[in-house]
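Case 527 in the screening queue. Each case pairs one protein sequence with one candidate compound; here the compound is adenosine-5'-triphosphate. For every case the pipeline is the same: read the inputs, emit a complex structure as tokens, and attach any notable structural observations.

Predict complex for case 527.
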Amino acid sequence: MAEKKVGAEEIFKEFKEHSISEFFRKNRQMLGFAGKVRSLTTVVHEYVTNTLDACEEAGILPQVTVEIKNTGEERCLVKVTDNGPGIPKRLIGKALANVLSGTKFHRYMQQRGQQGIGAAGCTLFSQITTGKKVHVRSGTDKEAYECDLGISIKDNKPVIENLAELSKGNFKGLEIQAEFAGVKYENSDHGVSEYLKRTALVNPHIAIKLIDPEGNTLEFPRSVNEMPQRPRQIQPHPLGLEASDLLDFAHVTESRKLSSFLIESFARVTQNKINELKELVPDIDLSKEPRQLSWDEAEKLIVAFKKIKWIGPELDSLSLIGEQRVGAAIKNILNPEFQAVVERKPKVFRGGIPFVVEVGVAYGGNAGKATAEGASGNILRFANKVPLLFDGGTCGISEAIRGLQWKRYNIDDFEKSPISILVSVCSVYIPYSGVGKQSVAQEEEIMEEIRLAVMDSLRILQRYLSGVRQRTTAETKYKTIMRYVSQLAADLGELTGGKSETIEQSLRSLIENKYKKIFEDESEIKG
Ligand SMILES: Nc1ncnc2c1ncn2[C@@H]1O[C@H](COP(=O)(O)OP(=O)(O)OP(=O)(O)O)[C@@H](O)[C@H]1O
Ligand SMILES: [Mg+2]
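Case 527 output:
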């Protein structure tokens, strides 16, 4: 039987617009809300990264308490309290209950958050799994209040209820309390405590307290009392831009002309460069209003940018973990037999985005991942000082390391060796491969820097390992020879008529001198 034909009018009756909240309600896995353990870790990750960003911006040594209670089968109440600057009342809805808004998206600066999705994503996740609102207390230096927050999903607008003033001075910071279903607390590599432990490691200026569902308190005390060096906000470099970025900036600028917009908004653009541009794109009127820039023109400008010789972007805008802190972190967490740290110089990807790679390698002790057979090699990934616990398989960091020829470094099989490699990437813009921000995109320049840093650190490890091997072989030989010295001295004494004790002493000191050098070299590497 012939199928009944359906016309466009009929089909398009169903045509509807969706809000970004509706989109994420259907696709919450994109925000990291997939799997029970991962979902809970994601919630804590979003709140704690916000605390760190807010405290660092306000110049406050961060202190955060995370309390998790089981409220039913696969259901938890999460309370995160910080001592940060708080959020002004007039913006609380937008900040925590409006997907895609925040203070960080439009800034070109090394920060943990960059999308304006994290906290509102949690509000949405709570609402769609429990139907409940998120309770917030906030204290700034001007006001203190509490309220319940939800999202009107149809139009991605905040819903604020039970707003009440708190007496000023009663509370300073931000406290968020939210209930989630489809979540589970677990002490595993992907759980909340591991996440917080790794956060504390690379952020030694934070004090973290975790109260788990059993009521146990786990503290990661502050180990450094100075704030890390503040990253600097910089202007985007023309080579790091795409047409859509240029249009975005052009539509919000207050500059009157396209030429002054380019000079005022981007790094390294001078009147001379504008003159060069004029020659490269003669059909674009650079004196027109930036708002009138079309997509075609933006594309042409981007192509022209690539033909101009630019001074590179400012590279001192980044805040590293630091060689000493990486070293101390490795010692604390892994207490390895051997460790080495390599810090590379800042570099640029996509032609204009600064980034820097730091690497630490640890061998022996608690390094590697414990397995039934002993240990296997593992990679500890960090981006802008945030631990990445998920999506390792697709991450540029893991991929860069995967292709290494381990045997060159005296490592027979990475999968069967007690090795941990800590890789940290810091940038004004981390190219995450998903909104869940758990894996770094496979950008060739970043991967190359990671490869070089890891190879440097492995060369140092190799010296140690070949020393160990040499020592082990030498020790075996030394012991074997020494075992025969008495007999040999006695035989030689008999043959030559010499005193066997004297011969034995000479033989012993001859052998000891020969092996002393090898043992000394080894202890030098270790020290
Ligand atoms: N603990 C906090 N203290 C002060 N301000 C906060 C805190 N948490 C969130 N904010 C504010 O709320 C905004 C929204 O947070 P949200 O996590 O949704 O986005 P983000 O951190 O900007 O980006 P991302 O989606 O990458 O996390 C932040 O930009 C910040 O201005
Ligand atoms: Mg955030």
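Case 527 observations:
- The chain is about 40% helix and 20% strand.
- The domain at 238-307 is CATH 1.10.8.50 (Helicase, Ruva Protein; domain 3).
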